[in-house]
Write a structure and sequence with these properties.
two-stranded antiparallel sheet, about 270 residues, globular, mainly alpha
């Protein structure tokens, strides 16, 4: 079945924006270093510093405890996705200031195609960088299998779509990068910290446990953790795999819808 003209007119600008995002990101090496290097350094320094003082009990007798370097690895993967979403969607503000965004909006292009192109580009970059970091998994003590890598790629793609669409939703109405950074520091980073990436909910105070329960990223981190340990015992008190995947998919879908509505309502 051949594609209809309406389908082509929708996909072509989305693919063009996706390609532009990828090329632009690769050419700006500072963004690559910021999105990948910062989480890696964070994981190595904090993980190594707390390696022997953090012990999470496991269910298996062969490996009774888990150190912090291993526990924080799934959360660092999500942090890389989050940083990539931030650096990618902040370009919306730059595009508006440079006049590129106005030209795209003035063109006969559906706003949903703009959302799709930006989110696709950000998600692609996030997945590639997360998979690069995945090569360090043996340093954390997590053995990788083909099944875990494939499952992880699927989960990270869903998480990337949700976080990229959230970044789009925040960046679209903003006029300055300073405002975006303020939102990042006050909302996005705490959202990651209270997702079970840095410490388990079982040891937190009651109000923090409640915040972590309603935090959608908690379920994304749990889904990543389950994907890494697929077929093996996993030291976590996180929600079940079914609930984690369902909430992660639901969060991504809601963010895409909201991003599309914001783009359609505000130029």
């Amino acid at each position: 079945m051949s594609a209809t003209p309406n389908t082509i007119s929708f996909l072509l600008p989305a693919i063009s924006l996706w390609r532009r995002e990828v090329i632009r990101f690769v050419r700006q090496r500072s963004r690559v270093i910021g999105a990948l290097g910062t989480p890696v350094v964070f994981w190595l320094l904090i993980g190594s510093g707390l390696r022997d003082s953090f012990r999470l009990p496991t269910a298996g007798e062969a490996r009774p405890t888990m150190n912090f370097l291993e526990y924080s690895f799934p959360g660092t993967l999500v942090l890389i996705v989050l940083f990539t979403a931030i650096f990618s969607t902040i370009s919306i503000i730059e595009d508006r200031r440079e006049g590129f965004l106005q030209a795209v909006i003035a063109a006969p292009v559906r706003r949903t195609a703009i959302v799709l192109g930006k989110v696709m580009g950000s998600t692609t970059l996030a997945l590639l960088q997360a998979l690069l970091f995945l090569m360090l998994a043996p340093l954390s003590g997590i053995p990788l299998t083909l099944g875990s890598v494939l499952a992880l790629a699927v989960v990270l793609t869903i998480v990337g779509v949700g976080l990229s669409a959230l970044g789009f939703l925040i960046a679209w109405p903003m006029e300055s990068t300073q405002g975006f950074h303020a939102v990042m520091n006050l909302f996005l980073i705490p959202m990651w910290l209270l997702s079970g990436a840095f410490f388990p909910a079982s040891g937190a105070s009651r109000w923090l446990t409640w915040v972590m329960t309603v935090n959608p990223l908690t379920y994304g981190v749990a889904a990543v953790r389950y994907a890494l340990y697929i077929g093996r015992e996993n030291a976590t008190t996180a929600p079940s795999p079914t609930v984690s995947i369902a909430v992660t998919i639901g969060f991504a879908a809601v963010m895409i819808v909201l991003a599309g509505r914001v783009a359609a309502a505000k130029g």
